[in-house]
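Lab channel / #folding
Pinned by the channel admin:
"Please post every new chain as: sequence first, then the structure tokens as a reply. Keep commentary short and put observations after the output so the thread stays searchable."

First post following the new format, from NK:
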Amino acid sequence: MPELPEVEVVRRGVAEHVTGRILSTVEVLHPRAVRRHVPGPEDFQARLAGRAVSAARRRGKYLWLELAEDAAPQATEFVGTAQALGEAVLTHLGMSGQLLVQPVGTPDEKHLRVRFGFADGGPELRFVDQRTFGGLSLADQVEVGGVLLPTPVAHIAPDPLEEVFDLEAVVAKLRSRRTGVKRALLDQSLVSGVGNIYADEALWRAKLHWARPTETLTRPEVRTLLAAVTEVMSTALEAGGTSFDALYVNVNGESGYFDRSLAVYGQADRPCPRCGAAVRRDAFMNRSSYSCPVCQPKPRNAHY
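Reply from TO:
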């Protein structure tokens, strides 16, 4: 599943091509692609026609198209105790979702699910999803911590690349947990955007075993780990993200190449780039964890 760097690569491409443009038509070609939009495909299509896209934003692994507030009919509606501030097209790429920018008339992709046409007649935005685990929905936005967020993701914590990310608050929260450090990194209510790949890579850089109990970590160790998370994701972003197959691509259909720089993830039995020991693979939450047995010694009181 795409993690923060991959989603940010897509967000930047989408922002470049759709910001400031007006949607003329929206065509849902597979209802599962908008299953999270409860009113259904017809409502999704009708409510977006004529709306202007003001920005493309992201938090963690989610991205959304923010719609111009002056066209939002629900801009003063209340959601719970918070005031709704405009609407957004919330997107989750799932396992195989792609947002592609294509010239009008380009043959449809085999797994094209939603097509966005624009009033200027320029390139379309297409949502392609082979496995249909991803999806789109129209959601109200609320302000949380000074940031506008679609209501379905308002509970998700800031990610390390956001200006509002509070390092010391996350250090304290992580140390207060009673779990393994990798499980804590994957908890999107603690810090968003980190998945299996970048958790393993950051833990290797910080020389911490993935099963190290969070309550045994010192503040300097957690700061070092979070710095490693930020560093590895920033480096991956520069490389266009990590592509293990053809399903993750940017808006132009190009793959990222950070997989060439991975130190431990997916490198079982290969030499650790730092010490030369064979990288170890362990079962973890129905997935895998990769680590160096020398650089990242297993703690006695490991949390699995």
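NK: The chain has six helices and 13 strands.
TO: also worth noting, Residues 74 and 247 are 36 Å apart (CA to CA).
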